[in-house]
């Protein structure tokens, strides 16, 4: 089950489209969909999570808590809508594209992809690009 939760005024349009897309992302990696919870929030909310759970006093666009067991993909993905908006401006892309990239990024972590070094980051970016194309097929 994929669910969308809101701790801010933001509301994802066409939730069913995003739900089907995330399911396709998981399936395309040969994994099984478990319970994925997206929590959309603001910077302050996510900063508190970052301090409380990761001991990081910095703003971030995403924090994911991975509950994956084997090939059953599960977890909670917290996304700061404010950070996504700022990053979209910085990278000169529209908000929806940057949001999809971040949403895919969280699930790709659960599928085993990392981004702590340059090679892993490059593979992660390529996987994000690949998975974002799956969304366009759905439109």
From TrEMBL:
Q: Give me the comment on cofactor binding.
A: Binds 1 zinc ion.
Kindly report the protein's main subcellular placement as a broad class: cytoplasm
Q: Which UniProt keywords apply?
A: Cytoplasm, Endonuclease, Hydrolase, Metal-binding, Nuclease, Ribosome biogenesis, rRNA processing, Zinc
**Residues reported to bind Zn(2+):** 105, 109, 115
UniProt enzyme class: hydrolase
Which cofactor is recorded for it?
Answer: Zn(2+)
**Per the UniProt record, which EC number(s) apply here?**
3.1.-.-
Which subcellular locations apply to this protein?
Cytoplasm
Q: Which InterPro entries match?
A: MetalPrtase_cat_dom_sf_prd (IPR023091), YbeY (IPR002036)
Q: Name one Pfam family in it.
A: YbeY
What is the role of this chain?
Single strand-specific metallo-endoribonuclease involved in late-stage 70S ribosome quality control and in maturation of the 3' terminus of the 16S rRNA.
Q: What family does the database annotate?
A: Belongs to the endoribonuclease YbeY family.
Q: What is this protein called?
A: Endoribonuclease YbeY
Q: Which organism is it from?
A: Flavobacterium rhizosphaerae
């Amino acid at each position: 089950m994929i669910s969308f939760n809101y701790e801010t005024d933001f509301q994802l349009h066409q939730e069913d489209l995003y739900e089907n897309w995330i399911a396709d992302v998981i399936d395309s990696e040969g994994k099984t969909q478990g319970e994925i919870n997206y929590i959309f929030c603001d910077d302050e909310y996510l900063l508190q999570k970052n301090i409380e759970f990761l001991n990081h006093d910095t703003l971030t666009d995403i924090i994911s808590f991975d509950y994956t067991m084997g090939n059953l993909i599960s977890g909670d993905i917290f996304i700061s809508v404010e950070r996504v908006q700022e990053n979209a401006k910085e990278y000169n892309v529209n908000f929806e594209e940057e949001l999809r990239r971040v949403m895919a990024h969280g699930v790709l972590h659960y599928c085993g992809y990392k981004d702590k070094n340059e090679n892993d980051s490059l593979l992660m970016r390529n996987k994000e690009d690949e998975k974002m194309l799956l969304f366009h097929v759905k439109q």
